[in-house]
Write a structure and sequence with these properties.
Layout lengths: L10 H6 L6 H13 L2 H5 L18 H22 L17 H10 L8 H11 L8 H12 L12 H7 L6 H5 L3 H6 L27 H8 L4 H8 L1 E2 L7 E2 L4 H24 L5 H9 L2 H5 L5 H7 L4 H16 L2 E5 L6 H4 E5 L1 H19 L2 H23 L1 H4 L2 H8 L4 H13 L3 H12 L11
Antiparallel strand pairs: 1-2, 3-4
Helix pairs in contact: 2-5, 4-5, 4-13, 5-8, 6-20, 8-11, 8-13, 13-17, 13-19, 16-17, 20-23, 20-24, 22-23
Length: 452
């Protein structure tokens, strides 16, 4: 459609004033570029919840991203179904829905910037980059798409404008968000930690944002919107229990985020049940007998029987049914504050399904994510990241790989040099980071012939 062709434009085409290509071709290639990227492959050795050495069964960031893509395409199919009547007449929003290629590209790409050791690694990198533009996982994803990806020399994976917009969960610049936080500005005045083991990690959670280095990409992605839409879309407001953040998402992003939440609340729950970290009694008390579930009983006790069965097939059927319930609860809402369809249309879950999904996410967070056994492994990973960064910063010529050091040398500022180190560590898998740490700091480990 002619009124959507501007969304298929790539940044390199924008720079050379080339005519955008057809959506079917562009979005299929976007998905292919993500799948074939090194950053995507590395997700197979990055933590989802459990350590990579716990079992071959449990999910990694790679399998999580694949599940998000599958759920995302299911959500789009459901929106098409409910948006088309018996005579085949479609509601207006249907023509603005992402294609299967497009939503899968966005979902597969959403965690590319995830550093080693999960959100713990993210906090550690943010601490080391606190005076140099910060670190944030979503911002790192955009950086891979715009600069670091290998498909082009200067413009990263060079995905289409709409795919790029869909991946931008928080369209605000890191420094702009933090400039509104007096508390964080005070923290920046603290002296460097002399002992990372006693560092207050909770103080260095980064704001949901993008880097100033990729501000040009944000402006390019938003160019088709009018000034009023752009201003509202990027405005930052107070957020409960954390940094200020943006309040709005593009249509495709709302679908991707719902798919991500469903995968987190249900598929990650499956891992916890299989590993017997979550007992049936606790599930019964905190979920099935909760006030939320009493109000919105989306399933009966047979689901519990299957979920906690000794049969892996029964568990899988329960998980599949729970996901299906969530997918079938999607509908399209409209935010009248925006004029452009890609900002006005918002995918949402019906009230009951959304309430139960939030309950499941809370259950996983409280009973898996924040338990001591998981936090201990996260803490160890944070120390590995901090020590690696400290050593690379002090000895870049000796410790950075030659190609990374060559890039380091041509940077024009200290902040850009530190970003090179940050990019190197952020791209590491858990396995690579731990092996490099052992090579540098364990006397009995390491050889010049090691292939990390």
């Amino acid at each position: 459609m002619l009124d959507q062709m501007e969304w298929t434009q790539r940044y390199t085409d924008f720079l050379s004033d080339k005519t955008p290509r057809a959506a079917r071709i562009v979005y299929q290639r976007d998905r292919a570029r993500v799948i074939h990227s090194a950053s995507f492959r590395r997700l197979q050795a990055k933590t989802q919840i459990f350590g990579l050495n716990e079992s071959d069964f449990f999910r990694t960031r790679l399998t999580h991203s694949m599940e998000v893509a599958q759920i995302g395409s299911g959500l789009v199919e459901q929106l098409i179904t409910v948006g088309t009547d018996a005579l085949g007449v479609e509601q207006d929003y249907v023509r603005w829905l992402p294609s299967m290629y497009l939503i899968e590209a966005i979902c597969l790409a959403h965690d590319l910037g995830h550093p080693p050791y999960g959100h713990g690694g993210e906090v550690a990198l943010n601490y080391m980059m606190r005076d140099f533009g910060g670190f944030e996982g979503n911002a790192q994803t955009l950086r891979i798409l715009a600069k670091l990806g290998e498909y082009t020399h200067d413009n990263g994976l060079d995905l289409s404008r709409r795919t790029t917009l869909g991946v931008m969960k928080y369209p605000a610049i890191y420094q702009d968000v933090l400039s509104q936080s007096e508390d964080y500005q005070q923290k920046l005045m603290r002296p460097d930690a002399q002992d990372f083991r006693v560092l207050d990690f909770a103080s260095w959670t980064p704001p949901k944002s993008l880097y100033a280095e990729e501000n040009y990409m944000l402006e390019w992605a938003l160019e088709p919107f009018n000034l009023a839409d752009r201003t509202r879309f990027t405005q930052v407001a107070p957020s409960i229990g954390g940094h200020n953040r943006t309040q709005y998402k593009a249509l495709d992003t709302t679908i991707m985020e719902l798919a991500d939440d469903i995968a987190y609340g249900i598929h990650d729950l499956e891992d916890a049940v299989t590993m017997k970290m979550v007992r049936r009694e606790r599930w019964q008390a905190q979920v099935m007998e909760s006030d939320v579930f009493a109000k919105y009983p989306l399933w009966d006790d047979k689901m519990t029987e299957r979920l906690f069965s000794d049969s892996s097939k029964a568990r899988k059927h329960a998980v599949s049914q729970m996901v299906g319930i969530m997918v079938e609860a999607i509908y399209m809402d409209v935010n009248p504050q925006f004029s452009h369809p890609l900002l006005a249309y918002q995918a949402k879950l019906e009230e009951g399904a959304m309430a139960v999904l939030e309950l499941l996410k809370k259950f996983v967070f409280e009973n898996v994510i924040t338990i001591a056994e998981v936090k201990q492994m996260e803490y160890k990973g944070q120390l590995i990241v901090l020590e690696l960064f400290k050593s690379l910063r002090a000895n870049p010529s000796a410790l950075l790989p030659s190609k990374n050091y060559a890039k380091y040398l041509v940077q024009e500022s200290e902040q850009q040099q530190q970003r090179v180190i940050s990019d190197y560590i952020a791209g590491m898998t858990n396995t690579y980071a731990s092996r490099l740490y052992a090579k540098l700091f364990t006397p009995t480990q390491g050889s010049i012939f090691d292939m990390l």
